Amino acid sequence: MNPQFKLKTDGQTDTQISDGGMVMRAMGKWKLCVALLMTMVMVSACSSTNSDEPAEVTKLTQTMSWFAQPEMGGHFAAEAAGIYKKAGLEVTLQQGGPQVSNIQLVASGKVQFAMAQADEVILARKEGIPVKAIYANLQKNPQNLIFHKSSGIKSIEDLNGRKVYVATGFPYWKYLTYKYKLDKVQVQTYTGSLANFSADKDAVTQGYATNEPFVLNKEGLDVDWLLNADLGYNPYGNVVITTEAMIKDHPDVIKAYLKATTEGWDYYYEHADEVNKAINKYNTSYELDHLTDAQGVAKELIFGGDAKEHGVGYMSEERWTTLVQQMKESGQIDKDIEFQDLYTNEFIPEK
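RESULT FIELD:
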């Protein structure tokens, strides 16, 4: 044993004792520092282990089918509530619009995900563009044809002889024209404005069940509408599309994204006011009372149909096959397209 650490005995000097005490105090401080350092390391490790924050963050971009609105609410809810972040995703939500080509954005790799209508996916595959639907936000499509109640319109055939404001390139109009022989319609170019329709009580305009009826009623106009889905043309609405390469190379990312989006839909309908305010920040022209009304209309479109049994986002082979046949019959495609090339349910979370 080092003599400096022995108790004082006869013959030892005060200097020896003093030097030994200094060493003991120094050793004590050193041991204390080590203990504190070990405690800090353990706390840091526990903190890291117990944190809800993922170790890595994946950046993604999702482009919407149009300007922000409740039909896309699950995505905005997942972003606003931090659900994407908790899943390890940093998601940028981009609004769509009339000048935005979502198919091209995805196909070129400029964005990872975008929204489209199911019939747009079919037209893309017709052109050899390798995009695929991975999630259907809307089981029932809200596309409609709106008319004044005073017009006397009772059925789709009553559109013949009237001015109808439509975007003539839309697949739904090509199919309805074919099926119901709307060969006497006075087609007017739809510009997004409702002014001409409002002024002409015999006119008809295209729209969305979640949008134009509310706007027109607020203006004091008494309107009704025919829902395209009820007329037999019901492509899945606001389907999330991505590329085959993304599906092959990043399946775990897609699965995490769709799981978080599905959680977002539940969150939206549990925290409507909070999420509608977030949507309003993206699209200030969509006022809060309009958002509330549209959310109510959209609920059955999102959670109804096959989603009741299989969960939000689900798509069926029958629906896609029927749509392909309808587009083929109406001359929009000239050959069958296999449903496997159009969609997959493999990343949708189980209900």
